[in-house]
Amino acid sequence: MSSFRFRFLLFSLLASSAVLPSFSATSELCNADDKRALLRIKKAFNDAYVLSSWDATTDCCEWNNVECDGTTHRIVTLSVLRGGLSGSIPSAVGDLPYLQNIYLHKQPNLTGNIPRSLLKLKNLQYLTLSYNNLSGPIPGFLGDLVNLIFLDLSYNRFSGTIPSSLSNPPNLRSLRLDRNALTGSIPTSLGHIQGSSPYLYLSHNQLTGEVPAVLGDVDFVYIDLSRNQLSGDPSTLFGRNKSAQQIYLSRNMFEFNMSEMEPPQASLIALDLNHNKIFGGIPAAMTGVTYLQIFNVSYNRLCGEIPVGGRLQTFDSTAYFHNRCLCGTPLDSCK
């Protein structure tokens, strides 16, 4: 190859590489409106270090803590886990109209209320704001997020009553409001949750009153009402043909005849009724619950012999003690 041709080829290669950066700049996938919204969120969080990859000169689809849709290249996920954020949730989060998933989890310095701007997120399916320091009332407008499937506000400082509108989303499958400071009664509207195989967590609050009978119309897979101040008869939650796997009702003031209870025999793996005012005896049908792994009826007013069979004798005496006159293995024999 002649020296002239070599120099020409080298010049061509250098010229080609020189224009590559300008080509890359014009090929950014991130939507400009989404990028501006994210940068406003970063500014509201005082340029938190956890968001340091959010650089205005780079493609936001390549940033950490967010995810772009593979086709539209719009931001569909905002996820910041385990610290790094302080202040309140910026209203600019509502300026990401294609968001489907929000996960702000274990942010002890995340405070304030849930902003009303989230109402604009009509595509939102998963909203997790757990293990933070959010406070104030739970906003009823969350029930207007029609595509919501999973709502988790657990481990915060929310107060006030449970909005009846939270059961409105037609595909809601999981509602977690546990570990807050909620008061008042359980709204009857929660008996209209329509999502398949629903989960309901209301434990560790200050809820009062009776469990609405209409909750028995919902085939909950998991229900936890423990550690409240609830009373009355929650036995509509039970049923031989229900699909419940875990039922936690401990440390309330429930009062019903356990002898008449029909446990979900094919699916139940956990039943905790300790520290209530439950009377009667343990039904023989409990011996047919073949997958039972957690069982506790201690600190109630039960009497009679513990039925023999199934898994009932695999639990130690602490699952049965401090009842009125319960007897039989693993307790003392009946006289």
Walk me through this protein's architecture.
- The chain has 335 residues and is an alpha/beta fold.
- Helix content is 11%, strand content 25%.
- It has three helices and 22 strands.
- The chain has helices at 3-18, 20-26, 32-44, and strands at residues 66-68, 75-81, 86-88, 101-105, 107-112, 126-128, 132-137, 150-152, 157-160, 174-176, 181-184, 199-201, 206-210, 222-224, 229-232, 246-248, 253-254, 270-272, 279-280, 294-296, 301-305, 325-327.
- A hairpin with a 6-residue loop joins strand 1 (66-68) and strand 2 (75-81).
What is the first-to-last residue Cα distance? Answer: 109 Å
- With strands numbered from the N-terminus, the spatial order across the biggest sheet is 1-2-4-6-8-10-12-14-16-18-20
The SS-based structural class is: alpha/beta
Order of helices and strands: HHHEEEEEEEEEEEEEEEEEEEEEE
**DSSP summary, beta strand count:** 22
Largest sheet: 11 strands, mixed
**Share in β-strands:** 15-25%
CA gyration radius, whole angstroms: 28 Å
